[in-house]
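Incident log, structure service

09:12 report received: a user says their structure output differs between two submissions of the same chain.
09:20 pulled the input from the user's history:
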Amino acid sequence: QHQKGMMAKQLNFSEDQKKQAKAIHEDSRKKMQELNKNESITVKEMRDRRAAIIKEKKTRMDGLLTADQRSKMKQLKAEQQVKNEERYTKRMDKMRTNLGLSDEQVSKLKAQRSATMAKAEKIKKNKSLSREKKKEQMMALKAEIKEQHNKIFTPEQLKKKEEMRKNRGNRSKVK
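09:34 re-ran on a clean worker, output below:
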């Protein structure tokens, strides 16, 4: 609810748009509930139908927007992308400090990230692939990343990275 309200506020929805958006959300919610009650379909069918409901909702919501609101939405997405890059930079700096990464290692990691993001985007946008094939290719990409990390990091850095990963869940207890 909070995100929907924020979107309506940031895009300056009219009262009519708010009513239509609420109706679209309610319709999608009802369809999802009906789908969840249906025990006679396979998991694959359920995933496919769920994806279709989400896609329909997105299309209907996009249809509500005026040209100005669409451009504002693009701007908001671009701003979010900048924030994501800032978070990545902070994470990279923290990793550099905690693992003692060299400049060469950092540049390799950044290059790897760029290449990986491009490959992932290509997989996502490939309409000729089934959902299962996309998932397989994304898992293969994830394995490829791990393999490349093993080549970039030293054994000591890998060990320390794994320890940091294990302790990540304990952060809330430390505060």
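09:41 both user submissions now match this output. Likely a transient worker issue. Closing.
09:42 reviewer note: Residues 67 and 73 are 10 Å apart (CA to CA). The chain has a mean pLDDT of 89.
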